[in-house]
Amino acid sequence: MLSPEEIMQLIQSLIWLLAGVGVFIVGMNFMGDALEKSAGMGMKRLLERISNNRFSGVGIGAGVTAIIQSSSATSVMVIGLVNAGVMTLMQATPIIMGANIGTTITGVLVALKNDYFNMAMYLLAFAGVMMGFANKEKIKIAGSLCSGLGMIFVGLNIMSSEQAFGNPLVENLFTAIFQKIDFPLLLILVGVIFTALIQSSSASTGVVITMVGAEVLPLDLALFIVLGANIGTCVTALLASVGANANSKRVALIHFTFNVIGTVLFTAIIWLFREPVVNLLVSVFPGDDPMSLQMRVSLFHVIFNVTTTCLLLPFVKQLVNYSCALIKDKKEAENELTFRFVDERLLSTPPVALMQVKKEIDYMISLVEENAHLAFVAMEKGSSEHNELIRKNEEIINFTNSALTKYLIRLSADVEESDEEVIGSYFHVLNDLERIGDHAENFHEIGLEMIARKISFSEKALGGITTMRDTVMQMFAISKDAFENLHRDKLPELTQLEEGVDGMKKDLIAGHFTRLAEGNCSVDVSPYYSSVIVGLERVADHLINVGYSIVNPTGSQKQDN
Predict the structure, then answer these.
(1) What is the mean pLDDT of residues 432-446?
(2) What are 23-59's pLDDT values in tens digits?
(3) Predicted structure pTM score
(4) Hey, how many other C-beta atoms are within 10 angstroms of the C-beta on 118?
């Protein structure tokens, strides 16, 4: 029976222990966020290389997870990309497998700590805090990275200090607890619950490694908890799939199934051959010093994830078929408007979210261009053949403008300064595209009214409109290429074409009034003709803004200095 004084000491030690875990997790988040921001372009390049090659998929998953230090975050990002239709299940599955390998890096770092390493980390944390006062964004990000990495080891040292695991009362408490639950399935359940609560297998594995190093937790029991942690990390992905489409739910199921299969396999091996497995790990890292004790757990974590990936990688197709059999497709509402490339879940990884926003705008440009073309085809032929397609396209254009603007507002709260300018230009481009869409709709309505009134443009008037229209469509091609591929070389040509459109407007309107005066043109078509000519000139103005948005956020032809 503990005395009141011992109970108070135990409570203080447990609070100290929780504080260490808290500092460790905060450090993990700091470092992950900083790595994500600093390696944003690297993540983009990795994701742009997505292919059907399984081995490259594993490499991408491991690389992205190594960058952001969280397999859960990688899984959520993959679910977002699958939900947006950017990635197939066959492409996503190897990436999920690779993510499990990438997450082992944290465990290796944790296991390497010693007195000299700890001192260096303390200095690094202090330097990171000082760098946070700098004016340059890159220095601030580097400071967050340094302070986050330092805080990880500050947290680990708090946990392994005399006030926490170093207290005999705490050691006796945990020894008693683990004696009660010295059963593989219960230990796995502990790992699942703990990881699900803190939503990071890297953090939970780090805590287990520290406990083994402090000799509070025996190695053979720690192995089962680590196995449970790999299942617990799936909870984040499962939660992220709620409300997503069927394919996204399948990604979460594959992630869960992959880790369960690996855990069942390794549980059976360790359960049957516990002593040989422990002896093998001890032989690789002999000695009773904390680093050797910790490296054994870290090595097991690496072996588990690499082996499971190697075993299941040949069965990617079977895993996909299994998930499809378990989760059936639901018939989606035909009239429901949704993003094509963007997903809410990608907001947690701003560099990737911004990359997908650009793809969504590219798609919007293609719809606006198509509507402009179809409107003039309808006007020239006096046909209502494409009415429904034009109407649907216009609905998508309006939806994309409104929904993507709201998405960008949310995204702008958590991006680097360099990306803030990009987001600013996207706001302007969306507005310009929406206005072009309105003009295209207006051209279509003019055509419908003229069909209803059984009037048409004269051959001379239609020839002028066609020439001006062809010039504007040339501008469409250049603006689209400039925005999609960041090509600046044809921007001067875009300016020349726009100036040509301005000249055409004056000449065509003057010619129209001459024909009216000579009686060669009907007064009934006059307002329609003027509206089309003025509308085309305004479309040209908006296309200039879209093209020049790659050099100036406002779309101005004058570059900011």
Answers:
(1) 92
(2) 878 887 777 677 666 655 566 566 666 767 888 889 8
(3) 0.72
(4) 16
- Give helix 201-213 / helix 104-111 axis angle, nearest 10°: 30
Q: How confident is the model at residue 175 (pLDDT cuts 50, 70, 90)?
A: confident
How many helices, marked H, and strands, marked E, lie in the chain?
23, 0
Phi, psi of 560 (to 5 degrees): -70, 145
| Residue with more model confidence, 210 or 301 | 301
Please name each of the domains of the chain with its CATH number. Answer: 14-42+50-326 (no CATH), 344-548 (1.20.58.220)
Taking the CA atoms of residue 303, residue 309, residue 310 and residue 313 in that order, the dihedral angle to the nearest 10 degrees is 180
Give, as one character, the DSSP assignment of residue 84: T
Are 277 and 269 in contact by the 8 Å Cβ rule? The answer is yes
**Cα separation values, 352 from 32, 221, 265, 413, Å:** 15, 39, 35, 15
The most confident of 324-328, 469-473, 551-555, by mean pLDDT: 469-473
Q: Could you tell me the CA-to-CA distances from 463 to 182, 439, 470 in Å, in that order?
A: 88, 20, 11
Q: Which residues of 412-441 are buried (b: 16+ CB within 10 A; e: fewer)?
A: beebbeebeebbbbbbbbbebbbbbbbbbb
Q: Which two tokens stand for residue 193?
A: 């619950």
Over the stretch 486-528, which tens digit does the pLDDT of each residue have? 888 989 999 999 999 999 999 988 887 888 787 777 788 888 8
Q: 351: Cβ–Cβ under 8 A, 6 or more apart, which residues?
A: 36, 37, 40, 41, 43, 44, 419
Residue with token string 């798609």: 363
pLDDT tens-digit series, residues 386-398: 888 999 999 999 9
Per-residue model confidence as pLDDT tens digits over 326-341: 888 776 545 578 888 8
> Could you tell me if 229 and 65 are in contact, meaning their C-beta atoms sit under 8 angstroms apart?
no
pLDDT given for residue 561 in this prediction: 39
- Rounded distance between C-alpha atoms, residue 470 and residue 477, angstroms: 11
Q: What is the pLDDT of residues 288-301, one digit of tens each?
A: 888 888 899 999 99
Spatial CA neighbour of 34 closest among 155, 138, 122: 138
SS (H, E, C) 110-176: HHCCCHHHHHHHHHHHHHHHHHCCCCCHHHHHHHHHHHHHHHHHHHHHHHCCCCCCCCHHHHHHHHH
Distance CA 147, CA 499 (A): 54
As a whole number of angstroms, the distance between CA 83 and CA 18 comes to: 37
- How many C-beta atoms surround the C-beta of residue 94 within 10 A? 25
- Residues 6 or more apart whose CB falls under 8 angstroms from that of 359 comprise 86, 340, 341, 342
CA–CA separation, 165 vs 172, rounded Å? 10
Q: Which residues contact 373 (CB under 8 A, 6 or more apart)?
A: 473
